[in-house]
Write a structure and sequence with these properties.
The protein is mainly alpha-helical. The protein folds into two domains: 196 residues, no CATH class; 80 residues, Orthogonal Bundle (N-utilizing Substance Protein B Homolog, Chain A), CATH 1.10.940. 68% of the residues lie in helices and 0% in strands. It has 16 helices and no strands. α2 crosses α6, α2 packs across α10 and α11 crosses α14.
Length: 314
């Protein structure tokens, strides 16, 4: 689920929260980082819980129609295509998934049901819903396309839902785009014969990524003073406030990768931190960071310092 850039962002947020202090006691810092990374999975699961509640809502809606005292013929025999959606059934009936959601206390939609109501109403009045309900075709392929379409066009872009997630956990705002991409990818691959674990992707691609997160945090903190001194020598003409801001932190993290992670090419590190700076810092930050890192790399290479090893080092 996590990619390296998102791991870097999480490390950046953790360092910023603790002001990048230099300490040998890293337990608190690492615990904060691991919790922040783990919360991404919580967001993913809470969205699946939301889809489960929308499925329940469709059943309740049809039941109420049928119970109308003065209901019409269409009320007594409602179109149950949404209720019978095979992808929603796979999600709702996945006991492993639902048990994990319950255990992690992520089905908070019972209390915050108004968001389910808002989204259900938005879905019902959409052209996607009308086309789907009137489509004579049936099967997982059709049902899956409908759910992916309404998620992409109605659920994910909903401002009230976005604000809700932001209030629930601030870091979820940064996680949301990544989780959305993962969710759509996972749901698109679901088959009727898929095991229950199909809906439960691993948080990390492999153990190396998890170790990368811990080591980047630890080594940046332990070498904070050294990296700060090296950066200051290359930034004599820059505002001190810029170095005390996020830009200075990103430079230290980049230096950490330059010096402590020999398998990561200089170019990869520079590109990653330029993209992070564009998203999280000031408009001029990427220009500033690129200039400093380019100067440092040229110096390393001319002095044969911190040589890189491994694949992809062209």
């Amino acid at each position: 689920m996590l990619n390296r850039r998102h791991i870097r962002i999480k490390v950046m947020q953790s360092l910023y929260a603790f002001k990048g202090h230099e300490s040998d006691d890293l337990v608190k810092d690492e615990k904060f980082l691991m919790h922040s990374l783990d919360s991404m999975l919580d967001l993913y699961l809470s969205i699946l819980a939301l889809l489960t509640e929308l499925h329940k809502k469709s059943k309740d809606y049809n039941k109420k129609l049928q119970q109308k005292i003065l209901g019409s013929e269409s009320d007594r025999n409602p179109n149950t295509k949404f209720q019978d959606n095979l992808l929603l059934k796979i999600i709702s009936n996945n006991r492993l998934l639902q048990d994990i959601i319950t255990k992690r206390k992520l089905n908070f939609w019972d209390l915050d049901f108004e968001y389910v109501d808002i989204l259900f109403k938005e879905i019902k009045k959409s052209s996607l819903y009308e086309e789907y309900m009137n489509n004579p075709e049936t099967g997982l392929k059709v049902d899956k396309k409908f759910i992916l379409d309404i998620y992409t066009e109605i659920i994910a872009p909903n401002d009230k839902l976005y604000d809700y997630f932001e209030d629930k956990k601030l870091t979820w705002v940064d996680d949301f785009p990544v989780v959305n991409t993962v969710l759509l990818k996972v749901l698109n691959k679901v088959k009727l014969t898929s095991p229950e674990t199909r809906l439960l992707p691993d948080l990390y691609k492999d153990e190396d990524d998890k170790e990368f997160a811990k080591e980047l945090l630890k080594k940046t903190i332990l070498n904070n003073s050294k990296f700060a001194e090296e950066v200051s020598k290359k930034t004599t003409n820059w505002d001190a406030e810029r170095l005390a801001s996020l830009d200075g932190l990103l430079l230290k993290m980049a230096l950490c990768e330059f010096q402590k992670f020999p398998s990561i090419p200089f170019k990869v590190t520079i590109n990653e931190y330029l993209e992070i700076a564009k998203e999280y810092s000031t408009p001029k930050s990427s220009l500033f960071i690129n200039g400093i890192l380019d100067k440092i790399v040229k110096e390393y290479q001319s002095n044969d310092l911190y040589p890189k090893t491994g694949r992809g080092l062209m």
